[in-house]
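tool_log.txt
---
The assistant was asked to compare two proteins side by side. It first ran the structure predictor on the initial sequence, then on the second. Raw inputs and outputs are pasted verbatim so the downstream comparison step can read them without reformatting.
(1)
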Amino acid sequence: MRPPPVDFNTPCGMMTMRQLIRQAMDVLYWISAIIASLSLVLISAVIPWGVYTRYVLNHAAGWPEPAAVLLAIVLTFFGAAACYRADVHMRVLVFQRMMPPRLGYASEILSELVVGALCAFMTWWGFQLCATTWHQHIDEFPWLAVGITYLPIPLGAAITVCFVAERLLLGPAKDVIPDRFAGRE
């Protein structure tokens, strides 16, 4: 991802607010994508280790499965935020495309507002959940507080709220994922 071009029509060649917001959202997107990717890689390493210790060493390790579950939570919430911004999340557009243009646009705005409200709810109550369970510990990982394991929920939701605000204020982010088929006929 290259930085946005500087608008030289602004004083001293400074970036416009739009460019600054886009650049901040690009950073959040890449942080989310990298965290989700690392989680997937770690899951791919942890599960085979559990299989190896169980079937080859005949002495199953107790930590690979709970570690994989915790990593799956990280993958889910940070990956969902990244997919939302890149506009590659699952959705059904059949009815929206059947509507007249103005009504379709209104339903698109409404769906963005619903996603934003749901993610704001998850952020608020997710942090409440983290605070409530902060002093509880997981049996397999006694050094790890349960509240820490729930942090991906409110953090991923808060990042998604930022992406919803970006989409509502500035429109969808273009070129987050380059179109591989652009220019082909």
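(2)
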Amino acid sequence: MKSERWARKMTKDKTPIIKESILRRITSLEPEAPPGQVSPESKTALTDAEHALCLAATSGCVSAGLRRASRAASRLYDAALRPADLRGTQFSLLIALELMGPSTLTALGGPLVLDRTTLTRNLRPLERRGLLTSAPGLDRRTRVLSLTPAGREVLALALPLWESANAALAAALGEPLAQSLRGDLDKTVAAARETCEVRET
């Protein structure tokens, strides 16, 4: 490291006492690592306990398992909805607007468990295609989203595509497991929200 080369240069031909004094001075000037960060030399291997936690995070992590299942299912539904030029998340947004009617971002994001940034990113292409409109609400800081006639036409095209993909996945799982899974996922959403609220208090 640069500081080590400088230390060797500064202590060259110095007496032991002066060398020690200079090295103490240099050490005191070394910047500390930011919180949560360590220098590259400070950790060369994980302990057995840490390695075991890595294995647990691979096979026993609820979040990782849900994400893998979500990615696999998303590929299936996205492929099925391609003739309607929709992705699964966009299809869910059109469904929500049809069932809920004109809605604000907050009202729409809650049931879908989508944060404002993700919600806005998925709504923009739908608005550009004229499938929904966005207008000021009673409070000028809010926007109210509404499905357009063109949006309902695309939704009508997408519904049988979704139905076919959903039936295919349910058949592959077996209907009892598919029905149980729907209930378990609803419970998971509720439990995760409750746990998150508790941890934030």
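---
observation on (2): The beta strands are 103-104, 132-136, 143-147. The mean pLDDT is 84.
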